[in-house]
Amino acid sequence: IDDPVVRHLLSSLLPAMARPSDASSLFLDHVALALTAHLAHTYGGVVSCGSRRGGLAPHLERRAKERMTADLREDLSLAGLAAECGLSARHFARAFRQSTGLAPHRWIVEHRIERARNLLASREMSLSDVALACGFADQSHFTRCFAARVGMSPGAWRRMHAASGQTMADENPTTDALA
Description:
By secondary structure, the chain is mainly α.
């Protein structure tokens, strides 16, 4: 059976398999959960109830976000975050996404990008230092994620903002919305 969903999920793991020491546990957990859900639904006959009630209680959402942002360089696991909230990994991932609109891995990447934009605006750190301070495996990984989210490389973004004199607060007054 040629299942394009399985093929794409597994191909997203290729960079992690090439450099396992740089692989994010949260990303690996996210892909494993997506693969499991797809297989259960497509081949196991599991039917989603479609219920959208719930989400994380505000104090659990706050706790999870605080844990995720405490040290952006830390490699967190979905199971660890869920355990801190007293939930299973599957329930936590679903509830977090329902509460925030983003999967836990996507949320942390978005937060890392926002932190990087603040550090890039100050011009005190090199691009590789910004990448490491924000929890990216290396400058190449940082550049790929930043360009995908912002639409330009970190260096180009820094040059554009240095030339315009624009600060992060001028461009995005709701930066703390991710926090």
